[in-house]
Amino acid sequence: MEAYRHVIVLACVALYMVACVAVGIWAMRRTKSAGDFFMAGRNLGIFVTAMAVFSSTLSGFGFVGGPGLVYRMGMSSIWMVICVTIGYALSFFLLGKRIRLFAEVYQPISLPDIVAIRYNSQTTRLLISIAILCGVMSYLGSQIKAMATVLQEIIAENSSATWSLEMCVGVSCAVLVFYCATGGIIASVYTDLFQGVIMVIASVLIFFTAASCIDGGFSEMSQTIMDDNPEAMGPWGALGMMGCLSWYFLFALGGAGQPHVITKIMMNRRISAAKHILPISVGGYCISALLWLSIGLVMRTLVLQGQHPELTSADAAAPQFLQAYANPILAGVVFAALFAAIMSTADGFLNIGTAAVVHDIPQAIRGKSLQRELLWARVATVVMAVIASLFALYSPFSLVAILGKYGWGIFAAACVPVVAIGFNWKRASATAANVSIISSLLINAAVLVAEKYGMVFPYGVDGSALALLASLTIFFAVALLAKPPELPADVAAVMDI
After folding, report:
1. Cα(373)–Cα(36) distance, integer angstroms
2. CA gyration radius for the chain?
């Protein structure tokens, strides 16, 4: 079987690409309206929704960026893994029932729709739409870069040709555009279902494969890495205590402000389903995170022991491990599922970004969305994918996970106060929401500029965590100092339930 490894891997990836085209065409036939394109008709079952929630969070961020972080920083990134599960719990506790009630009563097709209703403000709709667009560019860029990185490694390993990262980004963007523009969110959630199940199974198999690569298993890996760099295997990793604690804050509380998760909560068929969706999502994420940790540790150990060449990029840890050490069939299946994860997650981000462009921003500015909304949604999908590809290539963040972390931070700072807090606190006003969103965008822009010029915050504190802390402080301060807003009777009634 080893003699046919390259053929098996390429065949699995090729079959997946064909499957993407088929899913896009199937989903296009089921997509009859903008509501179908953006919200899947709010008719998803428990298991499909649960798989879509955890898959959209992990994806290329976890399966390419995660092992890269472990390879580069040691145990620092475990704070991301643990804290995201807390973020799931907060999301469902604060919004699982409330946001679905709003969706049931008002029949929105986007998160800014509900935000505009809650705050009775088109300005708030405009600002939250802009914040979502900014976060989408970074997070979507991380998915495209992850897909291009994997594609580049596969081609380099399995053929004599050498493709540049720019060429791989172009191919990845082209496949992504076809898949997303045809099927909308329906294609995304059903691909999430497929890849979620596959990655849960494959992560367990990869975990045991990684353990068997080194005599002594994970104990030997820990010792080898510790001998090279004691800090890497400590509780804080190479990032340090304050950096890890700021990640804890960002990923635990910030998890309740991720619009791709909140939007999927709005899509489930029944309001009561949230209590069943949460444990399935958390369980799937925790099992799949075994791949994140195990590949990063084993690849760092193999390099330190001289059994594998030093990686030119930390993000190459996962694809190189799969091609060199995993069973060929397992490697092919994981690569296919990895592409599925990236594609479906990218589709989800393109979906919420497109909704902002063709529906929410026009609604906020001119009082109505664009005519032929479904057509313009597909056009906007193409344009946004191209812009995100450029951001992936030329942003100051070299690692996939750090690029994704920046997008996560934009979403968190803008949406946690306005959505997670504001939908549970009647005193929250439109003014508080607007000032909070503006401050979050300005601070995150400053973080981007600082990263561009190599500036770091003292003690390794993460800039995105500071943006979230600042936006929360401003939100509470403005809301408490101002006169409590008068809510429309129907909004107050929904918030009282």
Report:
1. 12
2. 22
